[in-house]
Every structure is written in C-alpha cells, then in structure tokens.
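Because discrete structure vocabularies remain unfamiliar, it helps to consider an illustrative case, giving the amino acid sequence and backbone structure tokens:
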Amino acid sequence: MKICFVSFPLDKNLKAQNELIKKYGNCSPEEADYIVALGGDGFILKSLHDYLKINKPIFGMNFGSVGFLMNEYRKDDLDDRLANAQLTKLKPLVMKTLTPTGKEVKAIAINEISIRREKYQAAKLKVIVDDEIRMEELVCDGVIVSTAAGSTGYNYSASGPIVPLGSNVMAMTAVSAYSPRHWKGGLLKENAKIRITNNNPSKRPIVAHADHIESKDVISVDIEMSEGLEIPLLFDNDHKIEERVYKEMFKTS
C-alpha cells in the first residue's frame, strides 16, 4: 500500500505527518494508492482541489475545529482503515462568471458557489433556472448554491436546508433577502442550469466565490453540476458521512 501524506503547515500537524511517514513510508501523490491529509475541513477542501486531476482517493484526519469531512486522527492501523474505508464520490459544481469587459472565470466548487454584494448596498439579482426567469429581482446580501457535501457549511449557517448525499439535488439559499422579504430559497434538481445576473452592476457590484476561488465585479454567474467529474473521498466505516449529515440535520443544541 502506497500512501502520500500531506498536512497543513502547523507544528502539531507536521509532527504527526513525520511520525506517520516513519511508520508507513511516503511517496508522491502520483504514485500513491491513497492520499492522507492532516488538517481541518478547509485543508481537505484544498487537497481535493490540488489533486483533482490525478483522481486519487483522499482520507482526511482531523486536526481542525469542525472536521465534518475528516476522520479521527489515530496513528495505528492506518493501512486497515484505508483498506476498509467507505468511498464517497462527491459531485462538484461548475461556475462560469462574466465581467463587463467580457472576461470569463471558470472554477469548480466542491462545497458551494456564493454570490455576495461587494459594497454596502444590497445586490439586485435576477434568477434564471433552465432558461426560465424564476425571479425578476431578488434584493439581498447574496445567494448560495450548495452541493450536498457543502450543505452543512455556509449554506446551513444562512438557514439553508441540509441535503443528504445521493439525493440528486442542489440547495439554493438566499442570504439576508430584503425583497421578496421572506424568500429563503429552494431545492433544485442536479441537472438544473442556473444563471444569476446583476440587475445593477455599475451601482451594486457583486463578487462570486467557488470555494476559495474569487471572481470580482461580475455581471452574470452560470452554475451547474459537473458532468462526469466525481471526487473520491474516504471515510471510516464506523463514521460514515451520511450519518454525520443526519446528526447535523436533527441536532437539538
């Protein structure tokens, strides 16, 4: 079994990485059967993006605060844990933005695509789904379009729904909607084509983020689920991500 160890550059992470390398060896990401990432949810997200093209399964061990996408850190029996881990394939979103000068930015989001006002004034957005105008004008601080894997993060903090993996839907959630006053968002089929345009770009600029990738001063954002791209993530069999989603969904405190 060939393992590549990567870690967020903090002393405790690097110390653990060195101990694991002494015990199990280390190789390059391209040669590895598995990539083991030591950090938090932000670092596993970065690792999934960094190694997207080589399509190697990634097993995260938690050194962060939340660790929703991570497994417990343990030094022993790692080879058995990897051999028996549950493989979950995440389907990311694809974002394409356009600026007034015609510049396009394309990016992939594993968690969510967020569109936010860039200045002090609320954004005025038009929402189009499958070439039909669903909302002529949404006045808000922003809109989040989330994958199932990302639905427990920024989407949930904005009062969006938690989406179970494998449900074949995306969550669209408003951030501080002013008009329509009580519009919260909704669920869309995973084959939906979303376009969000800025009704007043000169006065009310917006910025779009696909995970950590930013596109500023955009006039339109096209969003859809990727076709044919699935990202392999590993979880301990006794700590499955589906169960974590349900625990978040029915959390009482």
In short: The first strand starts at residue 3 and ends at 7. The chain has a mean pLDDT of 93.
